[in-house]
Design brief:
Layout (H helix, E strand, L loop, with lengths): L3 H19 L12 E8 L8 E6 L1 H4 L2 H10 L3 H9 L3 E9 L4 H24 L6 H12 L1 H6 L9 E9 L3 E7 L5 E4 L4 E2 L40 E4 L6 E5 L12 H11 L4 H15 L6 E8 L1
Antiparallel strand pairs: 1-10, 2-3, 3-4, 4-5, 5-8, 6-7, 6-9, 9-10
Helix pairs in contact: 1-5, 3-4, 8-9
Length: 305
């Protein structure tokens, strides 16, 4: 008969395995000319939590040349052009599943699999990752009884904040945001975070909260919260050498966090001459030294060289 201690041990091993599955290998980070990228995800419980960082290394993960040739053979020139553009881009997804327990890491793993499976369809149909991909993910999290059960029951909140963006060699970052903390840009020339116009930071409800207004099944899902509009894409630019873009979850900082944006700004300033990895580790160390974490913490640093 399995003892409680054996069960605890098995659950811990399972959680460690999940953590390994959710931790990107170093080779997964896109190698984009002029852009240095590094990220870390740190579970609150030290093993596995609800945060997710995953990358889309288009050049190494997909045979773009073969896909381009096939699209041209089929007379799909627009798809061929879109695939060609991906040679100079890399994708970064940062997500925060509600909660930071074992079941939440399972939902993060399911999000990871749904996302990467959907990419295959997107590349075949569009030659790029369209916003339709995230409409489908939102629909799945909204409707899925399995995911709601993992969150604690059919009436439990099953939502995810998410930001996905693509950076290219020019330092242009195009992204969508679903209820996620907004990215920050640190200017090396001015030694501070720069103000970003609100029209470049359009965000939508977290994934799984509202069904899309245009969903074909919308009449079957009455909602007291109403329905969301279609996702639109924002664009930011890293203009100067040494500029830094931060993507993070609210375990780092948010409007209610004891770790303020001013403290974060000072941490970036002190580390600004380092690599993306050095800046990331310096920020994480400063955050941990300042206040006891109360949530999973994830951070991706993109530095324009």
């Amino acid at each position: 008969m399995t003892t409680d201690s054996n069960l605890d041990r098995e659950l811990r091993v399972g959680a460690q395995y999940l953590s390994q599955c959710l931790t990107p290998e170093s080779g997964a980070i896109p190698r984009i000319g002029n852009v240095d990228i590094y990220g870390e995800a740190i579970p609150l419980n030290g093993i596995a939590g609800g945060d997710l960082i995953t990358y889309v290394n288009f050049q190494d993960r997909y045979d773009l040349d073969r896909r381009i040739a096939r699209a041209r053979e089929q007379g799909r020139e627009e798809i061929a052009r879109n695939l060609q553009d991906l040679k100079n881009k890399g994708g970064i997804l940062v997500a925060d599943v509600a909660g930071h327990e074992f079941a939440d890491s399972l939902r993060a793993l399911l999000l990871h699999q749904i996302f990467h499976t959907s990419i295959l369809y997107e590349l075949d149909q569009h030659g790029e990752l369209s916003n339709r991909l995230f409409e489908q993910i939102n629909t799945r999290f909204f409707k899925s009884r399995t995911l709601h059960k993992l969150a604690g029951g059919l009436d439990a909140s099953n939502f995810v904040t998410l930001i996905y963006g693509e950076i290219d060699v020019s330092g242009r970052f195009r992204f969508i945001s679903a209820g996620h903390p907004q990215p920050l840009i640190f200017s090396r020339a001015y030694d501070r975070f720069v103000e970003i116009s609100p029209d470049r930071l359009v965000s939508y409800p977290p994934i799984g909260i509202q069904l899309g207004r245009d969903d074909v099944d919308v009449n079957l899902f009455p909602s007291a919260l109403g329905y969301k509009e279609q996702y639109t894409t924002n664009e930011l630019n890293l203009m100067g050498q040494g500029d830094v873009l931060l993507l993070f979850t609210d375990g780092l900082t948010d409007p209610f966090s004891p770790y303020s944006q001013s403290q974060l700004e000072r941490a970036v300033s002190r580390a600004k001459d380092g690599t993306a990895e050095e800046i990331c580790k310096a920020i994480v160390a400063d955050r941990k030294a300042s206040f006891q974490p109360s949530d999973d913490l994830s951070l991706v640093v993109l530095k324009y060289r």
